[in-house]
Structures are given as structure tokens and as C-alpha cells.
Amino acid sequence: MSEEPILAVEGLTIDIPLAQGTLHAVRGIDFELNRGETLCIVGESGSGKSLTSLAVMGLLPKRLECAARKLAFRGTELQGQPASAMRQLRGNRMAMIFQEPMTSLNPAYTIGDQLAEALLLHRRVSKAEARARAVELLGKVGITAAESRLSQYPHQLSGGLRQRVMIAMALMCEPELVIADEPTTALDVTIQAQILRLLVDLQREMNMAMILVTHDLGVVARVADKVAVMYAGEVVEQGTAKEIFEHPSHPYTQGLLRCIPVPGRTKPGEHLGSIPGIVPSLIGKVEGCAFRTRCDLAESACAKPVPIHRTQGGHAWRCIHSDTERVPA
Amino acid sequence: MSAAGSSPPVLELAGVTKTYRVKQGLFSRPKPLQAVGGVDLRIRKKDVLGLVGESGCGKSTLAKILLGLEAPTSGRVMVDGIEAAGQDRTLLARRIQPIFQDPYSSLNPRKSIEDIIALPLVVHKVGDSAGRAQAVSKMLDLVGLPQRVRRGYPNQLSGGQRQRVAIARALVMKPEIVICDEPTSALDVSVQSQILNLLGDLREELSLTYLFISHNLAVVEHLATRVAVMYLGRIVEEAPAADLFAEPRHPYTKALLASVLTPDPSMSVPDTHLGASYPNPIAPPSGCHFHPRCAAVRDICKTVPPPHVSDTKGHVDCHLYAERTQAA
Questions:
Q1: Contact B167, B143 (CB under 8 A)
Q2: A283 lies within 8 A of chain B by CB
Q3: Which residues are within 8 A (CB) of B287 and not within 5 positions of it... i.e. 6 or more apart?
Q4: So what's the ipTM on this one?
């Protein structure tokens, strides 16, 4: 408990200045991540989950305004750090795996060059040592004949192999924090299972902290220790995977879980649950619960600031309805 | 499903193959790539045939052949017992309509919603402008869009609304068969459920038949009445959905089902044992195409193509089941 968290985020806000006004894309979110833990950030498009991960990596476009009470990596505040210090961290102590392995690998360089780059940049190693490490990691991510792959270009590899290369690249310097943004969304189900399994195994082996950004509730349930459900720029519910799936407490989380067909629970052909309406505009001042326009339980009180309920186990949700109204999905 | 044996198929494929010739280098001769290799399928009225398989297995090529966008290299496609080849494509298009994956790229951004939905009527010269306007109103009601969107443009709509427009456009000609190629995979979870509900309702209301292509097996299990599993251009197993999900037979089907991630926090990520990656379709493995990845591989699988084992429920192409029937 006393150990310092790998990542501590408090009151993170991200604003996008637009001609029509300011879009409040992320509106004050808090989370903490310890060594060896996996946090899944789940939400639909536009909920701010990808921006949050980019903010942690310090990769937000400059025109966006990002602020936080605290954005600390191993106790060091990241805000206000010079760009050179962030570059020292990125790819070294913290690494990112993106969704599209085709667009995030450079088509003009070989796999070997791209893998070795991170190590040559951050460690005092020879080219031969970097190559050896690249071969070792390619082997670790399940690529056969790793030696011969080094001279290949990204286009010569299949989607699944490319994503393995991306993972190997992220792990070259043994980072303490890995952020994976929809790492398996572009892949086939069979490959998805393999890649996720690989990520989970490597994360355990290296005792890394991992943030997995996804919209796939199946992935979340299988991989997460902790889950943060985002809606319209806020974390509306946070807790252990067990709490979130067995006792979803925010109406949005409950709604999401009713939307997906689950073999054995939903009857084939029957109507699935749905969440009526659309996500509200986040341009200008946003007050009260952003979900109230789509919520069955909405009352006039929802337009006012919403309290956060917390249980002892760390399960928290942002809703005017308290513990007594918890309904298992 | 009770009428499974009696009603004639609305759509029948017999020995359909499609071979492309692909060049791998500037000076190399083009090599044959068999995208679809001898597919037999029968889809009965009001059936929802779920077609599943990994990318590159030929699902979309098969859809293109059914839509008349590609001609099969050999084999026959029959709609209501009439051979599709040689018929005018517009006649085929009246009966079979597609819904594509990405509602952002499948709608013309420069046309109003009304024009998009009415376009099939214009192409097929159905009705006058008043009649078309009325048809558009009806379709908007049917797919649950407000009438006011008709003068709007695709960029003013959300992803779910766009997919509703695509569905309205597909249904305005009153087709019998709708080819849904990953219709919900570009949509958010909450929107996906709305579109799936809509597709289910429309099937009941209009007695539609669907070919539902998807890689999301939970969605297929929810919507499909029958499921065909495709691997490297061939249908390796076909059965009623309930049977296939309860008791998958082909080792590939088993591996596919094992890789489905149900939202159960007490389980971890499964090991599918599908070690090797998807084979190169230009040089498919000998014998059974699946043997390099198969958990139950035997010597015979490496050299001899699998037999076609069919029974009352469906079929499976696998050596394992041939032996069992011989032994029995």
C-alpha cells in the first residue's frame, strides 16, 4: 500500500478550442495505477479515453489545453517538464502501443532498425547488442525466425505480426508503464485473443503497469484489474473488474452491459437493451450529469453537481442514486 | 426453423469458385489466388445465415459474387431457382441489396438523405417523384429516423443514423435478400444494439433473408439461424446456429468459438492454440488447408483433402468425422 503508484492522475481536464467555443473533451478525471496492475479505460467514441492516454504520454497536440492538479509518474510531476525530459521517458520508462500497426510503423525502415532505435536512443548499447535484444523480444512476442524478420519491412508482415512487432518495440526498454490504445481492434478474433494473451503474460512477467483503452467489454472483463468507465469526458464509474461487471452501479455502465449479446444470457433473436438518444455536445459549459439526457432514472437533481459514491472496496460511481438502488444487471 | 426441410432456397450457390490472378513482382508471372474454392450454400427464406471467418478467407468475395459485382470463375448462383448468370444485373439488384460496414464511406456526402434513399428507385425507374418522396417517408419511418433528416446530408448524422440510412436505401426496392457485410462493426456498442434490433424487426416485418457477414461471433450467435464457417475460400462447417454454438465440430470452428471474449471477469484470455498465422492463399497448405494450425491434426490431413461429411443438420469438411461415420 505504501508503495508509490506508477501513475497518479487527479483532476485531468482537456479542452479543445473550437470556433464555436471550447469543447470540454475530458472533464476532471482521477485514477491511480500501481505496479503490475492493468487499468482498462472503456467508453464509446468521443468519451475522451484516447485523449486521456495521450495526455499521460505527453503526446497531445499543442492546440489542446491540458491541465491537472496532479499528473505524476512514479511521484514525478509530468506537467511543466521540458520536452527533452518527456522524450527521455517516452519509449523508455513509459511506452505506447497504438491501434493501427500499419500506420504506426514506418514503412521505409526495416523492423530491425525500428526495434533497435528505442534502445539505441535510451541506452548506451552497441548496434549488435540492440539487435540481439530485438531478436530476443521478437521471440518473446511469439515471432518465429526472429533473426530473418529483422531485415523485413512492415508491409511484408500480416496485421497480427505487425501488432506483435509494435508490442516488442514498446517493450524494448522494459518500461514500467505501457499504454495500449485499442491494440486489437483492427485484428481478427483469433489473433485478438493471442495478442491479448501475449500482453497479459508479458505484463505479468515484467511486472509492468498497463493501461488498456478499449470499447470492447469482453476484452475489459478478461484483462482488467481495475476498470474506469468513461462517458462524455468523465469517469462515471470506477472499480475492480468484478465490481463493474457483477454490480454495475452507474446507469450508463448498466446500459452498456445490456447492449451486448452475451451467449447464454441474452436469448438469440430477442431485443437487446439499448441506450436511447445521443451523447450531448461538450461545447460550452457542461453542468450536472452528462448522461441525464439518456438516463431512465434522471430527475431534476441530475442537472446539479453530482456526488460520487464510494464503497470500501474502492468502487466509485458518479450518480445521484446511492447504494440502495444498485440493481445487478 | 421448423420449415427448414420444406421451403425451397431463395439463394443457392453450387460449386462457386473465384480465382484471381495476382502478380507478386514486376517480372513474375501472375499466380492464381483462389479466393473462393467450391462453395455450396443454400439459404432459405427468412433465414439469417451468419458467415464467419478470419480476414482473407473469402467472405467478402462471396458477398460480391452474390451481389453480382464479381462473376464467379465457375459454379452457379441461383436466386429463387433461377440462374443469376446471364441475367441483367439490375434484375438481380432488385432482389439482393447490400448493407456495408462503414456508414461513413458508403453514403455519398454530396447527396441529401432523401436522394440517397431514393437513388435505387431512380436507377430502376420506379414511380414518379411524388411516389418516390412517399417511399422515402415510409422508409424513414421504417428504420426509425425522423422525417426532418430527409433534407440533411450524411455529415449531419451520427454513425448509427447513417447506418439506418444505408438500411433504408437497401430496403427501398423491397428486396428479398440483404447481404449485411459487417453492418455493426464500425459502430459503438450502444448503437450496435439498436441496429441489430432494427435488423431483427425488419426481418420479421418484411420476411427478409439475410446473409450476415461478421467477425463478432456473439453478434452472429444472437442474430443468425444458420452459420457457415469459412476458411481459406471453403465452407468448412455449416449448421443451424444453435447446434453450431452448442456443439462445434470442425477444429477451426472450435478455435474460433474459444477465442470469443465473453464479458466474464472470472475468466482470463483464452489460449486458442492457433499457433501458426493465417496461411498465404497463393500457396495454400496441402491436404486440409487448416492442418498447420489444427490441434487435432493427423497424418492424413497433411496430404489428403478433407471429405465432405453431411448429415441432416449441415456439413463439416474434416477427416475426424469421416472416420467416425465409417466406424459407425
A1: yes
A2: no
A3: B300, B301, B302, B303, B304, B305, B306
A4: 0.84
What's the rounded Cα separation, in Å, for the pair B278 and B53?
11
In chain A the domains, ranked by start, together with CATH numbers, are: 36-58+175-325 (3.40.50.300), 101-172 (no CATH)
Q: What angle do CA A122, A125, A126 make, to 5 degrees?
A: 135
A217 and B242 within 8 Å at the Cβ level: the answer is no
B66–chain A nearest CA distance, Å: 24
What is the C-alpha to C-alpha distance for residues A105 and A102, in angstroms, rounded to an integer? 6
Tell me whether strands A234-240 and A209-214 are parallel, antiparallel or unpaired: unpaired
pLDDT by residue for chain B (328 residues), tens digit each? 444 445 679 999 999 999 998 877 777 788 888 899 999 999 999 999 999 988 888 888 999 999 888 899 999 999 888 888 777 778 888 899 999 888 888 899 999 999 999 999 999 999 899 999 999 999 999 998 999 999 999 998 888 899 999 999 999 999 999 999 988 887 888 888 989 999 999 999 999 999 999 988 999 999 999 999 999 999 999 999 999 999 999 999 999 998 888 888 888 888 877 765 677 788 889 999 999 889 889 999 999 999 999 988 999 999 999 865 554 4
Q: Tell if the pTM clears 0.80, that is, is over it.
A: yes
Instruction: Return the residue of A nearest to B262 by Cα.
Output: A218
Q: What domains lie within chain B, and their CATH numbers?
A: 9-327 (3.40.50.300)
Q: How many CA atoms, within 13 angstroms, populate the side-chain half-sphere of residue A136?
A: 12
Cβ distance B238 to B43 under 8 Å? no
> What backbone torsions phi and psi does residue B41 show, to the nearest 5 degrees?
-150, 145
C-alpha cell at B16: 462457386
